[in-house]
UniProtKB/TrEMBL annotation:
<keyword id="KW-0813">Transport</keyword>
<keyword id="KW-0997">Cell inner membrane</keyword>
<keyword id="KW-1003">Cell membrane</keyword>
<dbReference type="InterPro" id="IPR044527">
    <property type="entry name" value="NrtA/CpmA_ABC-bd_dom"/>
</dbReference>
<feature type="signal peptide">
    <location>
        <begin position="1"/>
        <end position="25"/>
    </location>
</feature>
<keyword id="KW-0732">Signal</keyword>
<dbReference type="Pfam" id="PF13379">
    <property type="entry name" value="NMT1_2"/>
</dbReference>
<protein>
    <submittedName>
        <fullName>Aliphatic sulfonate ABC transporter substrate-binding protein</fullName>
    </submittedName>
</protein>
<comment type="similarity">
    <text>Belongs to the bacterial solute-binding protein SsuA/TauA family.</text>
</comment>
<dbReference type="InterPro" id="IPR010067">
    <property type="entry name" value="ABC_SsuA_sub-bd"/>
</dbReference>
<keyword id="KW-0472">Membrane</keyword>
Amino acid sequence: MSAARPRTFLRALAVTAALPLLLTACGYGSESTDDGGKADVAADAEKLSAEEVKIGYFPNLTHGTALVGVQEGLFQKELGGTRIKASTFNAGPSEIEALNAGSIDIGWIGPSPSINGYTKSQGKNLRIIGGSASGGVKLVVNPDRIKSEDDLKGKKIATPQLGNTQDVAFLNWIAEQGWKVDPQSGKGDVSVVRSDNKVTPDAYKAGSIDGAWVPEPTASKLVAGGAKVLIDEADLWPDKKFVITNIIVSQKFLKEHPDVVEAVLRASVKTNEWIAANPDKAKASANKALEKLSGKALPAEILDPAWKSITFLDDPLAATLETEASFAVKAGLLDKPNLKGIYDLTLLNKVLKAEGKPEVDDAGLGVAR
């Protein structure tokens, strides 16, 4: 396979097959939790236009910008007297629902639920305002049962949920091989087993699955249990970049509190810069945040490879979105969606310019000015 072909089809399917499915299944569960309440604010700190900003993210390493930014107080520092209140989610649909309901104002979330949320609301509920992470997804397998990609035929491979980003990416990869699988049941030349990331390592240990196409840190947990990496999804993309996490905002909140949104974006940019400059400290900080949220820190043999496979970045890589959607249309998987206006990178570019960093492009999918 050429590099361009898998790239476009993998992401195109994540955009398309996910559309009817991701509204009910696109992450790692379905509930949200308060991650610890409100941050401490200095009594003399100056407030912005809002008393509080409510942010949401997943307790997942691919949401490391939010994990580290909150843990290290970098977000609260930029917000001054405007208090930050953070909640965590286990799935994209629940986070989109929270955004729609006003339970959160800004969220870190995957590209597929971002697209679903935008198209299903006819472009009225959210904007993508920045990027956050690329990478961190692998196909790991039992090396005793699977030696090569051809050996996947007839095997049982887990994905996190029916219709989640990794699920549709794997279904598309299967189709690229010329194999057949019913997307709903998962039955076919390969058995696609939908398994919550929390139980997938135990399923692998019990021998009920032969591998899994999963995000970090689940992939590294499986490797620690004896699995081997067969495919790193980054290798299927030119430049090895594909967005796994975006930053979205409620259009209402963006309109009413642009200064607060700008402060959050500035905090995100500075957090990514801090992560790049202090990789070991950042990794430890993210793990400490995960320990607070889950009650258990990740051991080094899982944390180290998982963290290494993720790139934290400010650019949402918007140019990929139009290509992904166009290939989906050509494949007959989707009527041409109207994604015009899904991005508003104005405030991000303002922040980047002020920080002496290059501005990023919305690939013609920005809101009309």
